[in-house]
Specification:
- The structure is a single chain.
- 59% of the residues lie in helices and 0% in strands.
- It starts with 8 loop residues before the first helix and ends with a helix.
- With 86 residues, the protein is an all-alpha fold.
Length: 86
Amino acid sequence: MAAPVSKSPLFSAFRSSSSSSLPHISRRNYHVELAAREKALLEEDPALKKFRSYKKGVKLTSKIGTVLTGVAVAACSYQLVVKAMT
């Protein structure tokens, strides 16, 4: 049985070298307040409300593309198996 990748010596060496490069800087508890411009950019824009349905269309198109990709991969795999059997 193979060992998990996270416990391999190569992975642990990479993890220790990347975390030891900046030991004094913590990734947590570091927050900078947003300026007025950033706050204004994050507010909801009433002029863009009519484009809300755009997000749903993009999500649906993405799902359809994912399904079609899966079907194409399955069909190609099936063809390869059929050719290998004959």
